[in-house]
From TrEMBL:
Gene3D superfamilies: 3.40.50.880, Glycosidases. It comes from Paenibacillus hemerocallicola. InterPro entries: Class_I_gatase-like (IPR029062), GH (IPR017853), GHL6 (IPR028212). This is Uncharacterized protein. CDD domains: A4_beta-galactosidase_middle_domain.
Amino acid sequence: MKKDSWFWDRMRQVHVDFHMPEFPREAIRSFDAKSFVDRFVRAKVNVIGVFTKCHFGNAFYDNTVGHKHGGLKEDFFGEVLAEARKHDIKVIAYYSLGTDARAVRDNPDWYQVDEHGNVRGAEGTVWELPCLNSPYREELVLPQIKEITEKYDMDGYLLDIPYLHNHYCFCPYCKKKFAEEYGREMKPELLETDRELVVRFGIDTAARCMEEIAATVKRIRPHVLMNCNGAWRMGEPDRVNATSDYGLWESQPSATGSFHNHSIRARYARTLEVPVQIMTVRFTEGWGLMSCKTAEQLKYEFATIMANGGIINIGDQVLPDGTLQDGVYEVIGEAFAFVEEREKYCIRAESVREVALIANNTNNWYHDKDDAATFGAAKMLLEGHHQFDMYYNDDFPDLSGYRVVVLPETVELSEASAARLEAFVADGGLLLSAGEATFCRRRQNFLLSGLFGVNYLERSPYGVGYLTEHDGLWRGVARIPQLIEAPFIKTVPSTAETLSFVQWPLTVPAVSRAFRHPIPPGGNVSDCPGISVNRYGKGTALYIAAPVFGSYWHSNHFWVRRIVDNLLRSHYRKYAEVEAPTHIETNLMRKDGKTYLHVINFQSNHAGEKSTAFYNPIENITPVHDIRVVIRDNELRKAVMRPDNVDLPVEATEDGIAFTIPRVHIHAIIELSMA
């Protein structure tokens, strides 16, 4: 699907969670469709996600298949759909696929089974997991999906949890299908001897299930958009993506610990040919906690999503009695009014190409955290005000227009991709790589060793190391050897120039070799390059012999970011230079012949005890004043601050224009044009 879907144009979306057990005596007794939808109308919502079946296995529509929630007399889904239609609100039908407590309670043989022979049950939570290879699909899921689709003309589907837990299951149905397909018995020992095969079978299970569901829906209503939770997320399998017309990447700062995640996710999503929801929540700490963020925080979160090319979606929770909370929609309404003023400058905009971050990510996002090296690199680039897009491993496009490529240490590239990067640098591009990026175990060398100008030697015996000082690269950091809290790789230069050497720690701490801190001070300075530069054709390759990006994500050591930023700045001049602190985020987009500089201001409260109060709320954002901007583009002449419609005084420079942004509260948009 190209940019011909209505989904691109609907920026104010709410997902209304309604996982509801039957034991509350007041369950769904106060539901009224008109007042329910009226909350969305007043809050300027234009897409809602509405439940048809929840994790507990309760249906929320007039059904003949499955179990309707015992407290529900009305047709919850149908009545909300009909009322939403009156107000031009699109409706996405939510269906709980991978969790269904009633289904497995009534049919215990449908349970997923782990490698120890235990069923994957809730143990006091909502997570009762049916196997997608069991008759659960044929006897409940497909008949229900068919019934819902025939009965209601909704706009789209969200199928939640399309995967087996950790991509594997050892129930009798999985064992049967695996033996029939692969001609061998599926035993838990295969997780040790051929884990890739077992996991591939699990991923194929999800893909086939989604393919069957999508085909069922499209036969009945071809216009209905399909999606499964996680589709088009960075690292998601292609076969699963192919079943989804739009993407969804959950992104709650309270769950991930970083407000950067909206921006990072959107910078990947904007490179795709499908619209992708970046889904935050109203809750301060996790789905269903009945708290509410401030409007100030939601404005900031929404700005980072829409300014970077994502589609805003926020999760809410229906109360047990079937009503929504007025106070929540007052807050969401204020935040969506802020979005409405700005969305026309963001919808369908495309990014300005300058830096391509080519990186890896997990394909098991339900249970694994996002890749630390990828997100650490993105965090560095955001804080350094670099203009960048993100691509997944080999899935990067023609690099025309990009001036810089960054490869974090965990990236996985083919020989063909390595050859493309060699050509990029030879033609004048700049490449920055770290750690074991492009290391090939078969070769025992980097795929790009000739480009780096260094050859792999071996790993070091130390878990940490130091970089020796370099005048230019140490700008803004203390003139001392700087710690990288991660293991270095030993390399031997061939054609590269060494800018900083690796200094080993004095020793590996042991009983007889203890220091005041577990990390010893620096010891011997090695002959191994820590940071090197290599001229290659018309371009340049930079290499750092440590996993600096993952280290930065885990440690937040500011000096690591400053050294990397100085290294990049010493080898290219940015299209847009913004003189602002690191908590200011910048991004450049183009639309209808105009360039838009987005400037977003972030400030949060201090945390208390970090092991428990890990979430820093945003209560008030103090405006930042007098941000100086230089744009290196001789075709530009005019700068207008949107949505305030204020013309900014512009000075001509040797290679473009310069101006000062007088004030940024949360999100300022500078429209740049020829006249």
